[in-house]
Write a structure and sequence with these properties.
The chain has helices at 3-10, 14-17, 22-31, 62-65, 105-115, 127-130, 134-139, 141-147, 152-155, 191-195, 198-202, 205-221, 223-227, and strands at residues 37-41, 54-58, 75-76, 90-96, 116-125, 163-166, 169-170, 236-237, 241-247. The chain is α/β, with parallel strands linked by helices and 249 residues long. The chain has a single domain, classed as Rossmann fold (3-Layer(aba) Sandwich). The chain has a seven-stranded mixed β-sheet. A two-stranded antiparallel sheet has the order 7-8. β4 (90-96), α5 and β5 (116-125) form a beta-alpha-beta unit. The protein is globular and about 55 Å long. The protein starts with a helix and ends with a strand.
């Protein structure tokens, strides 16, 4: 399933649980440096787009575009693999939690490098760290298998030389992506929360149902709390999320 098709399906309720977290936004915007013109690739509903720069949004799903705020940057229906921009036409290219859905990630990243004269910025998780997350480790075996053996730096190679900047996830993160509820496990029992997380849409229905049942049972018995006692008082946690920065010019 392509990113556009997936979010045509998920997008109808996406903004109910997926809201920009200001702490993550600050890390992403800092990585953009002094860029004035920015292309946001896989822009979705507009979360994390800087409002103080000139932005053009690229998004394949019309369902997602329809939910962009009125004051958001204009959106073009297009894909990451074929950006409708000239070489070196923007100061920076950015992509936030989207490249894992592109049919050809390497080509999309190469396109970001082609159009950006100053830098490329990607917010994504490092599978080698994310595999330790309790939800994947204890409840989602298919997803866990997909994470093993992969490293973010290697996946980002089409951008050129990159710096990986760790971004710990706060315990009260406002953006309901997969790792956001690491200290609020009850949230994963909510079908509306799961509807905004693409992993659950991509896994077999029976595996998702089994994961929900097992997590509910572990919460009731106290097994989850015992197994994860070390994180219960943490304010933030490194789940492998990184701001990836490639500098050009």
């Amino acid at each position: 399933m392509t990113g556009g098709a997936l979010y045509d399906r998920l997008g109808a309720t996406y903004t109910a649980t997926r809201r920009e977290d200001p702490r993550l936004a600050a890390a992403i915007h800092a990585a953009l440096g002094d860029a004035v013109t920015v292309v946001n690739v896989g822009a979705g509903t507009g979360s994390y787009e800087p409002r103080d720069r000139r932005v053009v949004a690229i998004e394949p799903s019309r369902v997602m575009i329809a939910q962009r705020p009125r004051d958001a940057a204009p959106a073009i229906v297009a894909t990451a693999e074929d950006l409708p921009l000239a070489d070196d036409s923007v100061d920076a290219a950015m992509a936030v939690l989207t490249d894992h859905h592109w049919p050809d990630r390497a080509r999309g990243l190469a396109e970001m490098r082609r159009v950006a004269r100053g830098r490329a910025v990607v917010f994504q998780h490092d599978p080698s760290v994310a595999a330790d997350f309790w939800l994947a480790r204890d409840y989602l075996p298919t997803f866990l298998a997909r994470l093993r053996g992969k490293r973010l730096a290697a996946m980002m190679a089409p951008l050129g030389d990159v710096e990986l900047r760790p971004v710990p996830i706060p315990h009260d993160c406002r953006d309901g992506f997969l790792g956001a509820f690491w200290r609020r496990p009850e949230a994963y029992l909510d079908s509306e929360v799961r509807a905004g997380i693409s992993v659950f849409a991509l896994l077999p229905d029976d595996e998702v149902a089994a994961a929900v049942d097992a997590l509910r049972a572990d919460l009731r018995s106290g097994a989850w709390a015992r197994r994860n006692a070390g994180i219960l008082e943490r304010e933030e946690l490194d789940l492998g999320f990184r701001v990836v920065v490639a500098e050009y010019g």
